Amino acid sequence: MHNILILGGTTEARQLAERLAGCKDLNVTLSLAGRTRSPIAMPVPVRSGGFGGAEGLARWVQDNEVGLLIDATHPFAANMSRNAAEASGRAGIPLLALRRPAWQRQKGDRWIETESPAAAIAALGKSSRRVFLALGRQEAHVTENAPWHHYLVRSVEPIDPPLSVPHASHILDRGPFDERADLKLLRDHRIDAVVAKNSGGTASYAKIAAARALGIEVMMIQRPDVPDVPAAADIDAALEAIGHALGLAFRGV
Predict the structure, then answer these.
(1) Residue 40 confidence (pLDDT)
(2) Burial (CB count <10 Å: 0-12, 13-18, 19+), residue 59
(3) Which pLDDT tens digit goes with each residue over 147-175?
């Protein structure tokens, strides 16, 4: 029996855990950061909360005899990726990163690339704009640096504490999102700018395609640097790499 720990919180982490759940040779645990109050039910054991940095993560994988660590965290969870790389070295176990490719600029895109949420808000300018904000709960409060804009905020869970800007409305929703629905959303709210992180993947790309179709500017936040470790770009490539690392042949998973 091979013990695998997946550091998750992403669609890909959930999909990988589901694909591996039925493999008789594997004992898979999915770890979530604990920020989402109502995570989706999973067919594998789920732990929630931090490990106490790289040292704590290394201790956990050693105590639980983990033979493979998989970093399937969000592309912007750079600290967790750094901790995973250090922990794998400390524990002497292999590490695989499941990293979805970043979105690439397409013809018609009006991107202004920025290095941080705060820089993206600053790039909106000093004149009042109608902004679709697609940031996590932790970053949404950067809007308070520019309270003159009107913000439409979409998040999985309510922003807590609530934003203190005078003009903000909220939508609670979980992806994957549909391009036609996001086109209607941007039109109905007369959005003229989108603030988004370059998360990659398909689940949240609808807003980017919709902004392109409507000629709307996108303040695109670039990804942070993460450690250079063995990586797979999708679930099938990850399964192949897992099989190679553990000496297994996956069929029909």
Answers:
(1) 74
(2) middle
(3) 999 999 998 888 889 999 999 999 999 88
* 118: CB partners within 8 A, 6+ apart: 142, 145
Give every strand in the sheet of 130-134, ordered side by side: 110-114, 217-221, 193-197, 130-134, 150-155, 168-172
pTM: 0.89
The SS3 assignment for 89 reads helix
How many other C-beta atoms are found inside a 10 Å radius of the C-beta of residue 118? 14
Q: What are the C-alpha distances in Å from 251 to residues 22, 41, 237?
A: 11, 25, 14
| Paired tokens of 233 | 């770009």
What is the mean pLDDT of each successive set of 10 residues along the chain, which is 253 residues long?
A: 93 93 91 72 90 97 97 95 97 96 97 97 98 89 96 90 93 92 98 97 94 98 96 95 84 56
Q: What is the C-alpha separation between 228 and 230, in angstroms, rounded? A: 7
Euclidean distance between CA atoms 98 and 230, whole angstroms: 9
Six-digit token string for 150: 């009107």
Query: How large is the angle between the packed helices 179-188 and 206-214, nearest 10 degrees?
Result: 50
